[in-house]
Structures are given as structure tokens and as C-alpha cells.
Amino acid sequence: MNVKKLDRAALDSWVDSLIARQKVYGVQARGERFAFAPLARAEDLRLDYDVTILPPKKYFLPQTEDLVTFKRSGEYDSVLDDEPFVLLGVHPYDMVAVNQMDAIFSSDNYDVHYMTRRKNAAIVVCDVQNASPNVFAGCMGTATVKDGFDVLLTRIGDAWLVDARTEKGAGLLEGVSAPDAGEADLAAREKVWAENVEKLQRHKLNCAPSDIPDLLEKSYGHPVWEERAALCFSCGTCTNVCPTCYCFDVQDDVNWDVETGKRSRTWDSCQLKDFAIVAGDHNFRPNAADRFRHRYYRKGKYVADKIGQIACVGCGRCVTGCVAKIANPVEIYNRLMEDK
Amino acid sequence: MSNVVSDTGADRKDIYLPEAATVVNVQPMTAMESFFAFKLDSGRELGHMPGQFVEVSVPGIGEAPISVSSSPTLKGLFQMCIRRMGNVTNHLHKMKPGDRVGIRGPFGTHFPVDTVMKGKDILFIAGGIGLVPLRSAINYVLDNRKDYGEVSILFGCKSPAERLFTRELAEWSAREDVTFDETVDVGDESWKGKTGVITSLMKKPVFDPKSTVQVGEELSKELMPALEIKEPGNTIALVCGPPVMYKFVILELKELGVPIENIYVSLERRMKCGVGKCGHCQINQYYVCQDGPVFKFADVIDVREAI
Amino acid sequence: MSKPRVAIFDFACCEGCQLQIVNLEEELLDLISLVQPVAWREAMSESSDEYDIAIVEGSITRPEDEERVKEIRDRAGILIALGACATIGGINKLKNNFDLDEVKRYVYGKDAEMPHLNTAMTKAVDEVVKVDYKVHGCPINRSEFTYIVRCIALGKEPVIPNYPVCVECKKRENVCRFEYGEICLGPITRAGCNAPCPSAGFWCYGCRGCVDDPNVNAAKDIMEKYGKTVEDLMQKMALFGSGQKTEARE
Ligand SMILES: Cc1cc2nc3c(=O)[nH]c(=O)nc-3n(C[C@H](O)[C@H](O)[C@H](O)COP(=O)(O)OP(=O)(O)OC[C@H]3O[C@@H](n4cnc5c(N)ncnc54)[C@H](O)[C@@H]3O)c2cc1C
Ligand code: SF4
Ligand code: SF4
Ligand code: SF4
Ligand code: SF4
Ligand code: SF4
Ligand code: FES
Fold first, then answer.
1. Residue C208: CB partners within 8 Å, gap ≥ 6?
2. Measured at the alpha carbon of residue B295, what is the angle toward residues B290 and B301, in degrees to the nearest 5?
3. C160 belongs to a structural domain
4. Does C206 fall in a domain?
5. Phi-psi region of B119 (alpha: psi -120 to 50; beta: other; left: phi over 0)
6. What is the DSSP string of B103-164?
7. Considering B174, B203, C50, C56, which has the largest number of Cβ atoms within 10 A of its Cβ?
8. How many contacts, defined by CB atoms under 8 Å, are there between A and C?
9. Distance, CA of A251 to CA of A216 (rounded, Å)
10. Which DSSP letter does residue B97 get?
11. Same structural domain for residues C57 and C178?
12. Looking at chain B, which residue has its C-alpha nearest residue C157?
């Protein structure tokens, strides 16, 4: 399908038509910040947002979700959430993160809970209009995104280019009559992409992302881990807000009949003190510094070695969210570069 | 990266869904450990290999990773030795035959009983509850005795009261085709065997001139280490025990000339999912639940935080 | 099996946590399906001395209260400390920051010498007797309370968070109070309340007490980054943090 060109009114009526047809989550204002939330009308959609407080992972791996229900007599049933939905306005760096999560949850052991949601989602990516204060996606190669999503929206002046990339995407655009984008429009879009690479560099990484694994390999004993972690609250914010973090805890709870109940998983974090504790109270990462370092290694090396991409997309959420202001990956990597 | 949206894997099975199993038998072993036999309600064999574990669910209480302690050669049921440590394990200890649990798995890597170990001399070194996963491999090897060369088993635990599988220890000890030796850290009045840490079973006897042994008195044969490694290069060592044990045992194995590539260890970490997702068991690049619990020691020797 | 008998006792507190139990509404019936209340001043007229589970609300502020709570402990198989006053001493511990006689004169004026106003250092219940379960918070979180009751019915050790309120606050996608230039005690306070305060636009004032091993030094160190002083922080912490273990560590 060709790229279409819509004006704002046409875009809004398209969004409203989507809302009339199915569940839509879109970016909206939340205090002075932004968040994905159920969208009631196109008017509330804020495609000019800079970054959302939580990444869209919450729709695929919710903060807490039921995995199975059980009877204490020993029967179990899967709980699957298969309601189709549209996710409107995902930024490219977050889309890259979703693609990484997809790789994790679809490979080796297929996670049917995550994947059911994922397959029922139609994702509309929106190229960034405003850079958030701490974004560095431009350094991580994630200022733009090539695949994984269904529709790409790009604002060109007062118009919107709408580019369906999949059959599902084309389905979303059914009934939209709009002119095709011209050569000039597509050139303008190329320009937005190029500009965004520059614009999304509020912090500048002094090395190529591909250098990070080796850099970390040499820096296990570097003093920066202890230095920084002295201020760490082990609060988990840097991982909870991270679009590529997916660790979870699993707990059972029973209903009042004390006979039936459910097992659910909830976001967990390697930064929390008890994350690696085992029976007998032995903790494999007892100090904040061990845990603090683990996060960087996890993102810059372990997962990177596994999926071939650095598991940091440069969204800057951890930088903003960390109360102690110690979680900035760029600062850490640059510091390690200096002392290499 | 591929676009997963086109994935049509419609009825994929749920990796978090336990399968019903029933307690067949429970026997107390020590103050802390009981020995359980389970069978899957579906009647299917568990299909594990020695060294693998399962996630055992007590509905409403939770799940815990537990090694399968029986050999795959035992059909119709599978066994576990479970130590009371907290919520799930305490509830398991309250169970009686006929009670039901949930099982996921088997998960993880296993000892290479069918490959590398074939035709080799095998040395099992178990510390305390480390005997639990090793027992599966030991019984597998003994059930296929002709496929292996010399077989030696070393076992050490804190005190006589903590000895596990006592009947089997005696059987192994009595076997002609097995070299068996054991020690306890601290004995009691009734303990006639050796005392000392497990590595004392691995040392070549050294005659200390300052020793308290009276002149003329023979060092009794029972107290001499029984282990004799004839061909270190042809020996495969399987080591399993508490974290502190590994370092010392491995040093001793080096001393005996067993090549590092021939050593296999089983590591324990906190686990929630057992399927490589939840992140709890991660040590560096490894997910212990997937890449372990059985590791070639050579693969983890340089891995920080591993041992 | 007969239902366990439960008795609820109040010491120095506002009884707000008991009110949370009364306010369980429909769930109150569910609760009664698991346990049988036998003594509960706030909700029933008769009372019995035979109980399996004692729920103790409030902090221990007088020597005679120490005796009373010890007696309760002796009778009960399980003792639950209900609410911040009971689990950490709560607001009542504020007075420990001052000279006791001064506190009495300030509060009661010339009646301060009356024997029934005899007051001692405020203690959390576990400073006097062994506590089996703690329901944190001022007031308690109803769903955590009911979870703990169900765990007891199951014979399961409840899993109570030992991580900061920030975890729950971020899961609820709040804008951090620090971004508004406010001091929030979330980073050192034990979660489990689901962060109602930051979600409603207030800072967390630490009513659930600190996590084990809170990084109080970091809290002090970061004040500067936010244009605040350590005194600002200490003032915030005094409300619920008084006499908590964290301070002893400094
Ligand atoms: C691969 C593998 C194989 C194993 N095989 C066996 C086996 O064959 N037999 C066997 O008995 N055990 C085995 N274990 C150990 C067993 O899994 C644990 O003892 C079990 O998970 C404990 O679960 P629980 O619910 O009983 O205890 P829990 O209630 O989970 O806790 C037990 C103890 O762990 C500590 N702890 C856990 N979580 C926390 C937390 N959040 N905060 C603070 N402390 C905490 C505490 O000390 C607590 O008392 C194995 C473990 C692994 C990883
Ligand atoms: S590590 Fe930080 S910047 Fe990188 S993806 Fe996660 S939250 Fe964003
Ligand atoms: S290990 Fe830590 S950094 Fe990695 S996904 Fe889990 S929480 Fe995130
Ligand atoms: S957000 Fe900051 S303080 Fe909190 S765990 Fe991460 S690094 Fe530590
Ligand atoms: S508002 Fe408070 S609890 Fe929430 S993230 Fe910020 S510091 Fe933590
Ligand atoms: S957010 Fe803080 S003050 Fe509010 S209920 Fe939770 S612990 Fe108490
Ligand atoms: S136990 Fe979940 S990743 Fe290994």
C-alpha cells in the first residue's frame, strides 16, 4: 500500500474510527508528563509527546498479570488475555525495545501470555516530534525503526504521512481515503528521520554501541560501580521504567474460599536487594554495587550477546526516573571509555 | 529481527502451566529432608535426564525448583529429596500419599551420562544435599555399569544425622565395582567413620612425622582415603554441593591431575520461572535454569559471580 | 476444623486501622467465614479470653500496657501487630525525641503528674513481645491485611515487600514527587501499600517504616541535588521514622 498523506482533521477522524471499532491505547498527558492510557477520543491523543513515564511494554507484560488459576485439589488452567487492541503513538526507540522483547519471549521457551497479547496488538509507530530531556536514542541507532510495527506515522509540517507496513496495518487504514504522499513528502520524511538521529542525542555516547560489550568486559573491577552505587536506593525505578527490562516475580494468592486461587507474575527488578537471594539467606548479589553493575552488564553485554543488540534503546527514562541521578548509561559508558 | 506478528503458533503450550502429579510415597530422611515419590497423573514418564530439575507447585503456596533424584532408569515414578526451607518445601513436607502437586519440567542441562561419560572412569563428589541431584546420575551409571570404567563416589556432610540415602550409601559401599568413601565434618559418639571436610577424602595419604599416631601403630585402613585415580585424564568428575565446597574440591581435583574439561558442576541460584525468562537465576551470560544447572566447570571457571 | 478465634486489642493509637477492618464491607463477611471474632471492642459487646489469634493495634506507651500485651501474647498462638503504631511505634514515637516529662507537661499541663497519665518511652509491639505478623501502614492497606489473613488460614508465610515504595509508585506510572521539587520518603520506605500517597499527589511520609537496610545516607546526600538540606529530610522522617533502626546505624 502506498504512503498516504492526511491532514490533522483526517488523522483525527481516522483515530476516532479506530476507537469506534476496537480498544485503543494512545499517548496522553499525565500531569506534566505523558503516559499510554485507554484512548476515548482523538482529541486526547498527544503525538507531540516527548516520552511516556512507562514504556508500552506494560501492554504486553503488564505490571501484574495472572498466569494460571488453580484449585488446591491440584487442577490448573491457563489465563490468556486475547482482546485485540491498537497501540497508538509508539516512538521508534520503544518499538525497537518491543522487537527485542519479542525475540526474548518468542524464542527458546515460547511465552504464550506475552505472545498472545503481542499478536493481538496492532502497533502504530509515530516518529518523534519532541526530544525528551534525557533521550539518547540517536546514539543507540534507535531514533528510527524499520520493522515490527503495522503503521508508521510521520509528521511533515501540518500533514501526516501514514504508512501501512503490514496487512494488519492496511486493515487499520481501511476506509481512509486520502491522497498518496508525493516524492517531496517522502523526501521530507527522510529528512525527519535524519534530523531525529541528531535531535535525539541529549547525551552523547563517546563510542559506538557495538563497542559496549568489549568495554564492559574490561571494566568489571572499575571503581565507578562502587562510587555510583553508594547513592543507590535499590529502588528498581531504573528497571521498572525501562522498555527492555522484563524480569518478573511469581506469587500465588487464594480466594476467600481458600480453595481456588491464581498464580500471577509481577515486574521484578535485579536492583532490589532480595532479587538473587536463595533459601538459607545466601544472596548472590548482596551489595548495591553488585546489583548496579549487573544492570549495565545485563543491558550492554549479556542480553547483547544473546540477541545481537544492546538492550538499551536510549529512551532516557532511567536517567529521568532515578531519584539519586546515578542511572545514566551514557555517563557510565563514557566514564569507562575515559579509563579504558 | 523478524516480525513476530506473523507468528501463527496458535495452540502453543503454556510454559507456566503445571501438570498434575500425585504423591506416591513420603519417607522422612533426616530432621530436615524427606524423600518423595511422585507420578504424573497423565501416566506419562517424566522423561528427565540426571541433573535436571522440575518446578514443583503446591497450589496456593507457590513453586520451587527441585532436582529429580531418581534415575531415568526407574520407571513409573520419579523421586525427590526435599529439604524444608520455606513456604513450598514446608507444605510439601505436610503431604501424604494421594495428595496432588503440580509439575513443570524437566528443565535445564544434565550430566553427560550418555555421551562424554561413556567408557570413562567416573568420580562423583557430593557435599550434603548435593547428593540429591548426583544420586540420579549415580544410579544411572550403576544401572548401566558396564558402560563405564572405574566408578568412585565420595560423600561428605556436616554430621552423621545429616547423612542422606543411608541405605544406598551402605549399598554403594558394599559394591565390589564401586569405590566408596565418606566423611562427616563433625562426628558423634556413634560415628565410626571418618571426620573432616570432603577434600580430606581426596588427599593422597601423607605420613606426618609429627602426627599423634603412636609409633608402631598402623594407620587403620578404614581411615585411609579410599580414592585412587588411576587415569586422571580418563576420569570425569561430577561435583555437587554447597557453594563453598566447589573451590576446594576443584583445587584438589587439579592436584589429582583431573583435567579441568573433565569436571562438571551443578550450580544453584534463585529461580522463579525455570524457563529462561524471569531473570532471577542469571549469572553473567548464563541463565542457570537453561544453560545449567549442570555446567562444564571449564565454562564457568572464568565467569564472575559463578563460583 | 473449627475456625480460629480472633481477638482484637487496642493500645495507644487512633483505632483507624481497626476502622479499616470494619470498612472491609462485603469482604468482612468473607473474613468472618475464615475466623471467628471473640473480642473486638470496636465492633462487639461481649468478649472472651480464649483466642487463637490476637490482633494488637497501637503502640506500647505505659508499663501496665507492657504487662497487658505480654498476657495477650501468652494466650495467643499467633500475634499480629496491626498498623504503624504497633509495627514501628508510629507517630507515638515522635515523643521519644523529647524529654518525657516535658512531653507530659506539654500535653497535659498541670495534670501531668496524674498516675493514669504515667508515660514511658513508646515502643512498637515487637519491642515488648514476639510478633508473628506485621501489617504495616498508617492506616493499614486493606488488601494486604486480607492477604495476610488468607495466608494464615493457608499456613503460609505471607510475602511482604522488602523493597521501596518507588517500585509500586512507578508501576502506577506516577510523576515522581522529586520532579515537583518535593522530598518523598518512597526510596527508603517499605512498599506494600501500592503507593497511594504519590498516586494522589502527595509525597510518601514513610508510614510503613523503612525497608531493611535503607540507604539513609544516600537520601541525605541527594538532598543537595534537589536544593534541599538534610534538615528538610530529617523533618520529613521524624513523623514515622523516629526511633527506627535506620537511625541507630548512623
Ligand atoms: C536447580 C535447583 C535444584 C534444587 N534442588 C533441590 C532439591 O533437590 N531438594 C531441595 O530440597 N531443594 C532443592 N533446591 C532448593 C529449593 O529450590 C529451595 O529450597 C526452595 O525453592 C525454597 O522454596 P520455599 O518456597 O520452600 O522457600 P521460600 O519460602 O521461598 O524461602 C526459603 C528461604 O529462602 C530465603 N528467601 C527466599 N526468598 C526470599 C526473599 N524474597 N527475601 C528474603 N529471603 C528469602 C529465606 O531464607 C527463606 O527462609 C534446588 C534449587 C535449584 C535452583
Ligand atoms: S537503560 Fe535507560 S535509557 Fe536504556 S532503554 Fe532502559 S530506561 Fe531507556
Ligand atoms: S536483569 Fe535487571 S536489567 Fe536485566 S531485564 Fe532484569 S531487571 Fe532489567
Ligand atoms: S533508579 Fe537509581 S537509585 Fe533506584 S535502583 Fe536504579 S540506580 Fe539505584
Ligand atoms: S514519588 Fe516518591 S515513591 Fe514515587 S518514585 Fe518518586 S520518590 Fe519514589
Ligand atoms: S506511600 Fe508512604 S506514606 Fe503513603 S501509605 Fe505508602 S508508605 Fe505510607
Ligand atoms: S529461573 Fe527464570 S530465568 Fe532462570
1. C84, C136, C137, C138, C165, C189, C190, C191, C192, C193
2. 125
3. no
4. yes
5. left
6. EEEEES----TTTTTTTSEEEEEEEGGGHHHHHHHHHHHHHTGGGSS-EEEEEEESSGGG--
7. C56
8. 99
9. 34
10. T
11. no
12. B87
Host domain of residue C205? 165-241
* Residue whose CA lies nearest to ligand 3 atom number 1: A270
Nearest ligand, measured from the Cα of B131: 1
Strands B19-28 and B33-40, bridge-based pairing? antiparallel
Quick check: is C143 in a domain?
A: yes
In which order are the strands placed within the sheet that holds A75-78? A75-78, A64-71, A260-267, A248-254
* Alpha carbon of B15: minimum distance to chain A alpha carbons (Å): 7
- Looking at the structure, give the CATH architecture of the domain made up of residues B121-266: 3-Layer(aba) Sandwich (3.40)
Residues in chain A: 340
Q: Of the residues C87, C121, C153, which one is the last residue of a structural domain?
A: C153
In this structure, the strands spanning C133-135 and C78-82 are: parallel
Tens digit of each residue's pLDDT (9 = 90 or more) over B227-284 = 788 888 899 999 999 888 888 899 889 988 999 999 999 998 899 999 999 999 998 8
Whether residues C119 and C178 fall in one domain: no
Residue closest to A315 by CA, chosen among A99, A73, A53, A47: A53
Contact C187, C216 (CB under 8 A): no
Residues 6+ apart with CB under 8 A from A85: A22, A23, A24, A25, A59, A120, A121, A122
Domain ranges of chain A: 3-199, 209-339
Kindly state the average pLDDT of the residues A154-176. 94
- B19-106 falls under which CATH superfamily? Translation factors (2.40.30.10)
pLDDT of residue B14 exceeding 60, the answer is: yes
Q: Which residue of B has its CA nearest to C153?
A: B60
Separation CA A260–CA A207 (nearest Å): 54
- Listed residues C123, C153, C183: the one ending a domain: C153
The owner of cell 538534610 is C230
Residues C102 and C223 in one domain: no
> C230 CA distance to ligand 1 centroid (A)?
40
Does C171 lie in the same domain as C61?
no
Q: Which ligand is nearest to the CA of B269?
A: 1
C25 CA: distance to closest CA in chain B (Å): 25
Do B91 and C156 make contact, defined as CB atoms within 8 angstroms? Answer: yes
Domain count, chain C: 2
SS3 state of residue B219:
coil
Q: How many CA atoms lie within 13 A of A128 on its CB side?
A: 29
Strand B62-67 and strand B53-58: the pairing is antiparallel
Per DSSP, what are the bridge partners of residue B124?
B153, B238
Q: Is ipTM beyond 0.90?
A: yes
Within this chain, do residues C63 and C187 fall inside the same structural domain, yes or no? no
First-to-last alpha carbon distance for chain C, in angstroms, is 50
Position C25 pLDDT exceeds 90: no
Residue C191 lies in a domain: yes
Nearest partner of A253 among A90, A126, A70, judged by Cα? A70
- Could you report the per-residue pLDDT of A261-311, keeping only the tens digit for each? 999 999 999 999 888 887 777 788 888 888 999 999 989 888 888 788 899
Ligand 4 and A238: CB distance under 6 A: yes
Q: Rounded to a whole number, what is the largest CA-CA distance in chain C?
A: 60
Which stretch of A193-207, B23-37, B194-208, C43-57 has the lowest confidence by average pLDDT? B194-208
Say yes or no: C116 and C199 in one domain.
no
Do both C112 and C177 map to the same domain? no
Residues with CB under 6 A from ligand 2: A 241-244, 299, 312-318, 329
Residue C2, classed as helix, strand or coil, is coil
DSSP bridge pairs for A52: A34
pTM metric for this prediction? 0.91
**Which residue's alpha carbon is nearest to atom 5 within ligand 3?**
A245
Cell 490468556 belongs to which residue?
A: A80
